[in-house]
Amino acid sequence: QLQLQESGPGLLKPSETLSLTCTVSGASVTSNSAYWGWVRQSPETGLQWIGSIYHSGTTYSNPSLENRLNMFFDTSKSQFSLRLSSVTAADTAIYFCAKLDGSGFTSVFQSWGPGIGVTVS
Amino acid sequence: DVQMTQSPSTLSASVGDRVTITCRASQSISTWLAWYQQKPGKAPKLLISRAFRLASGVSSRFSGSGSGTEFTLTISGLQPDDFATYYCQQYHLSSTFGRGTRVEV
């Protein structure tokens, strides 16, 4: 059974870089046609798609975040990661990693991690 | 960006009720629309994709319809486990979510 689990710091200061990792079990992050993504949720902005990464390593980001965002795999650990630079209070949110349904970078999110709360203060 | 507008924002209902939630897109998205259910402290759960396709394991109480700019999620025979917040998501042009509809007792 596919399981995803986010990990990373819960508290950052403004201008720091947020680094989050999603550990996947029950599937290979590099299996064919696999898309993985990040979504965040805050009371102010609701649910927001952050970006997605294809099994090949190709990424596609929300235009509003792409100049601060980097996503990559660590295949040896069955993980994919997010780095968001120059964070501000507006980046305070619950961050979810997820597996997309395989039809594209911005398709439906089939399976989700439980989420991790991140505060910028 | 394609803006997604859900209505109502809150809906009061009772067990057994038939409930309808509407999602409107700011431009046509064909049937590239999904619905999710979220309970407090949990991740969203996929219910429906392509506007009407029930996700695996989801109760047939849930149904979706619509195309273009107007979509509905219907819950037939509301059960206690269905009290939650429901979100629509368009994935035709990038990906954006509605602000949610809370179904409360």
In words, what does this structure look like?
- The complex is a heterodimer of chains A (121) and B (105).
- Chain A has 121 residues and is mainly beta.
- Chain A is 0% helix and 53% strand.
- Chain A has no helices and eleven strands.
- Chain A has strands at 3-7, 11-12, 18-25, 35-42, 46-54, 59-61, 69-74, 79-84, 93-100, 109-112, 116-120.
- In chain A, 36% of the residues are buried.
- The model of chain A has no long low-confidence stretch (mean pLDDT 94).
- The mean pLDDT of chain B is 97.
- Helix content of chain B is 0%, strand content 49%.
Structural class of chain A: mainly beta
Helix content of chain B: under 10%
Biggest beta-sheet profile of chain B: 7 strands, mixed
Mean pLDDT of chain B: 97
Q: List the total number of helices of chain A.
A: 0
Helix content of chain A: under 10%
The CA-CA distance between the termini of chain A, in Å, is 37 Å
This entry's quaternary arrangement is heterodimer
- Low-pLDDT regions of chain B: none
Strand content of chain A: over 45%
Structural class category of chain B? mainly beta
Number of strands of chain B: 11
- Largest sheet features of chain A: 7 strands, mixed
The termini of chain B sit apart by 34 Å
Average pLDDT value of chain A? 94
Give the strand tally of chain A. Answer: 11
Shape of chain A: globular
User: What's the total helix number of chain B?
Assistant: 0
